[in-house]
Specification:
By secondary structure, this protein is an alpha+beta fold. The strands form three sheets. Strands 3, 4, 5, 6 and 12 form a five-stranded antiparallel sheet that branches. A five-stranded mixed sheet has the order 7-8-9-11-10, with helices on one face. The N and C termini lie far apart (about 135 Å).
Length: about 400
């Protein structure tokens, strides 16, 4: 296509029209065809280059994935064979990771034939030089999943500490008695805990007829292998929980019942501690009957939270005979127990019966006294150990 240029020339005969020079027109058309052909050639070359690059990237991706699968196989085989050196050779060497993985190896071996390390990859995700792999394991013939994290270097893939990047954005959910701080991948755990923990808190308040609830506690769920379940050393009102995704989780996504039981113990102990301090104005004296009552109340309260948990034989037998209100009444007697250093008078007060007529399981009480005596004697407090069994009433009756 060219631009048509027409010249009009005036002559004696009038105006006449002169067309463009044919040679110039042909030259322009040749240049247009050359430009078009050059552009097409460039596009073709660019497409070929992109195809080569894409093919090369695909090949590299396939090789990276194949190398990753090999690294996983080697590590899983080391676990199956009990080859600790081979297992640790697959681990990154930074900070506490080698030590933590050494402990993890020992835990694997302690499970023996109960655990099958299949090495089967359920899913994997590679982002640049980082990867996350989900593996299938079987514990007691039940399917579980574990997540391993890797980094690629010149000499291959290495198992590294988990990166919080894989857990998504940080989130916060405030409930009636607990404020949760967590990453999005742990949303399922938060959905379970916010119902459980708030329900336990209300159960504890009803059991003690509390006039008001304590301030809300914080719960932080962290994707950090150095975090252990428990109260934060920097803040006694913060409960730390390592993300379950750091370890072995049921393949159906359910929450580990052992975690629920452990949390029920922590919260029942916290409530028992707060109630005891509220009654006494201070923590109970070590080895005292008041301290033992606090421990028994925590056990009894935990059994109200989780049925299959440990229970207090003492309070269990007492409530069976006199009803659950006797627990609240016994807590109100803590100052008497602390001052007299004996629970006998308090039990007689709340039941209205003579100690000889009360059917209650004293086994844990006597066991606690024996343990306290042993610890005091071992620490060099022989006199204090003897005074644990000091009974003024018996001495008076023997004098008479």
């Amino acid at each position: 296509m060219g631009i048509k240029l027409d010249w009009e020339v005036e002559s004696e005969a009038g105006w006449s029209e002169i067309g463009e020079d044919p040679a110039a027109l042909d030259a322009r058309r040749r240049r247009g065809r050359q430009l078009r052909n050059g552009a097409i050639a460039m596009l073709a070359l660019a497409g070929m280059a992109a195809g080569v690059i894409g093919w090369r990237l695909h090949q590299i991706g396939r090789q990276l994935r194949a190398d990753l699968e090999t690294a996983v196989d080697v590590e899983a085989a080391a676990l199956r064979l009990g080859d600790k050196g081979g297992f640790l050779g697959s681990q990154d060497d930074q900070g506490e990771w080698q030590r933590l993985q050494s402990l993890a190896f020992d835990q694997y071996q302690s499970l023996g034939e109960r655990l099958k390390v299949t090495g089967e990859i359920v899913s994997s995700e590679i982002t640049a030089d980082r990867a996350r792999v989900m593996l299938k394991e079987e514990l007691d013939d039940q399917p579980y999943h574990v997540q391993w994290f890797y980094e690629h270097r010149r000499d291959g893939w290495f198992h590294i500490p988990p990166s919080p990047d894989f857990w998504g954005e940080q989130s916060r959910t405030d409930t009636t008695y607990f404020d949760f701080f967590y990453y999005q991948q742990d949303q399922a755990l938060v959905d379970v805990l916010k119902l459980r923990l708030n329900g336990w808190w209300e159960t504890a308040c009803r059991a003690t007829a509390c006039a008001e609830y304590p301030p809300p506690l914080k719960v932080r769920i962290e994707p950090d292998p150095l975090v252990a379940v428990g109260w934060a050393p920097y803040d006694r009102s913060t409960l730390l929980i390592p993300s379950p995704l750091l370890g072995r989780v049921p393949s159906d996504g359910s929450i580990d019942p052992h975690l629920i039981t452990f949390l029920s113990r922590l919260l029942s102990e916290r409530w028992a501690e707060q109630i005891t301090v509220a009654q006494l104005g201070e923590p109970p004296r070590t080895y005292s009957d008041a301290a033992w009552v606090q421990d028994e109340f925590a056990l009894w309260l935990q059994s109200q939270f989780v049925d299959e948990s440990a229970h207090s034989a003492f309070l269990g037998s007492l409530t069976a005979a006199y009803g659950s209100d006797v627990v609240e009444q016994l807590i109100l007697q803590l100052p008497l127990i602390q001052n007299d250093q004996s629970i006998v008078a308090a039990v007689q007060t709340v039941t209205g019966d003579s100690i000889a007529d009360i059917s209650v399981d004293w086994g844990s009480y006597f066991a606690q006294r024996l343990r306290a005596e042993t610890r005091l004697a071992a620490d060099g407090f022989a006199t204090e150990a003897i005074l644990l069994y000091h009974d003024p009433e018996r001495e008076q009756s023997s004098i008479v």
